[in-house]
Amino acid sequence: MSLRIAFCASRAPIAQAALQGLSRRYGDHAEQGADVIVALGGDGFMLQTLHRTQDNPAPVYGMNRGTVGFLMNEYSEHGLVERLQSAEEAVINPLAMRAVRADGSEHHALAINEVSLLRTGPQAARLRIVVDGKVRMPELVCDGALLATPAGSTAYNYSAHGPILPIGADVLALTAVAAFRPRRWRGALLPKAADVTFEALEPEKRPVMAEADSNSVRDVVAVHIRSEPRIAHRVLFDPGHGLEERLIREQFV
Length: 253
Known about the structure:
With 253 residues, the protein is α+β, with helices and mostly antiparallel strands. It has two domains: 5-92 and 232-250, Rossmann fold, CATH 3.40.50; 95-227, Tumour Suppressor Smad4 (Sandwich). The protein has helices at 13-26, 43-52, 80-85, 156-159, 243-250; strands spanning 5-9, 36-41, 60-64, 88-92, 95-101, 106-111, 114-119, 125-131, 134-142, 144-148, 171-177, 188-191, 196-201, 208-212, 215-217, 220-227, 233-237. A six-stranded antiparallel beta sheet has the order 6-5-16-13-8-9, with no helix packed on it. A six-stranded antiparallel beta sheet has the order 12-11-10-7-14-15, with no helix packed on it. Helix 1 links the parallel strand 1 (5-9) and strand 2 (36-41). The longest helix is centred in the first third of the chain and has 14 residues, at 13-26. 40% of the residues are buried. It is found in: Cytoplasm. One of its GO terms (molecular function) is metal ion binding. This is NAD kinase. Its cofactor is a divalent metal cation.
């Protein structure tokens, strides 16, 4: 039985050209009822596609028509059906963020990569970190802090000198961004089921914003984060180039 493939692409000309060529070659099925969704673009577009299709049971297979492409497979117009049939699947659970603003309003968002709290003023942020209801760090003076999934551990987390996490490790990386005090604090590894809260100290003097992937909330006083096991993103990779292999390989470059 032939695969019902739904294609989607970023607005980049190279991605749009790939969309036209692949659609002519393999047909283009509607996403609802498709066996697989093929996303053409970079990692940013892949994250958008995963968020947009989170209620669709079809897995997503990305092909790189962007820049970094860590979540993407190599682009080729040939042999796509065979590649899809032999692909390896990784399941990613996002983080659920509940951000509380100074005016008392709450904003909810999901993050496949990470949830971060970042300063928005000239002075460093002062944060309190609470894990499962217990204060673990009374004060962290920094440019920000983030909680990253294994899938997102090679993104902003890695740039902030956080650890790369194997996809099946069932842990989250809590990483400081430019920590000033404690100056040598390198972050922490937490169980995937942990409930983490970042509290902003002196938010009027030291304002901060929260980000869940590309969703931003300003003037935040507290951010509550937990893994969301009810949402499972199915991502496909070529054999031998799965997310687990990529996460391990990235640690030796």
